[in-house]
Amino acid sequence: MNQELAELAASGATALVAAMGTDLWNEAKQLMSGVIARAHSSRRRELSAMLERPSTAARGAVDGVVVEYWTEALFQLLDHNPALAQDVVALASLRAPERQGVAVQVNSATDSGEVFAVQYGNQHFASGPRSRGSEERP
């Protein structure tokens, strides 16, 4: 049972940290706040304060140290109260909405070429890219 709780804690922590700085953050934070509120733990204030700290991770990046912190915290909460598992499963199941179709993007540039690439969005130029050399590019 402890192995299952450890895996669930790791999944929940990874989902929570991955959501930091993304559109999923408010939902992830609300789910984690619910877990903390129902935990009746002496660490309630500490965990709530950590949840309010701004993330230093880049959008969608996963900071290993922060994941370890939340994995340990979730494991302790689950170990003391296994009934929280349903709430942690909801957190671990949090995923970004699926995008339509499959995107395959291959970018390459040679001879000092430049690549301006955007996936799932639009890229607008006020004018074309400036040439590095004196001759005009086609």
Task: Please render the helix and strand layout as text.
Layout: H1 2-19, H2 25-39, H3 44-52, H4 64-80, H5 85-92
Helix pairs in contact: 1-4, 1-5, 2-3, 2-5
Descriptors:
single chain, 138 residues, mainly alpha, 5 helices
Strand count: 0
Largest sheet: none
Task: Write down the secondary-structure element order.
Answer: HHHHH
The amount of beta strand, in percent, is under 5%
Q: What is Rg?
A: 21 Å
**Cα separation of the termini:** 65 Å
Average per-residue pLDDT, rounded, comes to: 79
Number of helices: 5
Structural class: mainly alpha
- Overall 3D geometry? elongated
Share of residues in helices: 40-55%
Low-confidence runs: none
Q: Can you characterise this structure?
A:
By secondary structure, the protein is mainly α. It has a domain of 91 residues. The chain is elongated. The N and C termini lie far apart (65 Å).
